[in-house]
Amino acid sequence: MQNKTSFTTLGLWAVFVALLIALLPHTAWAFRQYEPMESPALLGSFTWADLISYVLAFAFEAAIAVLTHKLAKHFETMPKKIKSLEGWHGEWERFSYRYMNGFMFGLIITTCVSGMANLAHAVQFGQSLAIFDSLGISANIYSFAFGGVLPLVSLTFANVLSNVVEDEEAPNPLLVKANDDLKEIRKQLRDTELRAKANEEEFRKQLKDAELRVNASEEGKRLAEDRFAAMGDLIRYLFGEDKRQRIIAARKQWPELPNSAIAIIAGASPAYVSETLSADIQV
After folding, report:
1. What percent of the chain has pLDDT over 90?
2. DSSP assignment of 22-74, as one string?
3. Number of domains observed in the structure of the chain
């Protein structure tokens, strides 16, 4: 998914940069109209005024690319509290965060300059086409479509780039829920292991006490043997071949455990655990 995201994003940027490069000479032509007609030559017919025009045009077109990138990143970093707002208030907050900022202001200025320059170029060099007369369409519409539409294109790319990242990086809800469930089961299992270790330590302590008292009383010896036998039965049931006995033994030993944790300990499915425990309760 990450490779796909990178390829898609790079492809979009390649198209956008190619558009800006194609518009660069038109913007330079517009700036050239405000430079002196007579200027020292630098290389052949390329003059100092031509160089200044291209530098200005590159500055504006590069600014459009940089500000579009910054605006797209700004879209991606919208706080979660704003994303979660509902109703008209939420829509207004998201609109304000996206478009009422310095990146947007700078992008509007640069794209308007570039758009006006390319519109002027289209009007200056536009030729009469048969479609104008056949369909009764004004030539100004085509001049605007092919020369002055850059501001809308820049905003569209900023939105598209941000949406691509949001859509492709958004976490899968089912995967998130599965991970949360797995974390909860692991936590319960760790708690169960800790309690088992605590019970084991308690058992060893009791067995040691019983062994110390064995010389003093035969009754103490018998009691210790009974406890050991009871614990042996528990261990035998928990690690035996019969799943039903493992489930019942785990429930008796740890009655507070959920069925999902008992299923992990007994090596059975949650459905079989529920069925076994229900049948045991009925009996």
Report:
1. 3
2. HHHHHHHHHHHTTS-SS--EEETTEEHHHHHHHHHHHHHHHHHHHHHHHHHHH
3. 2
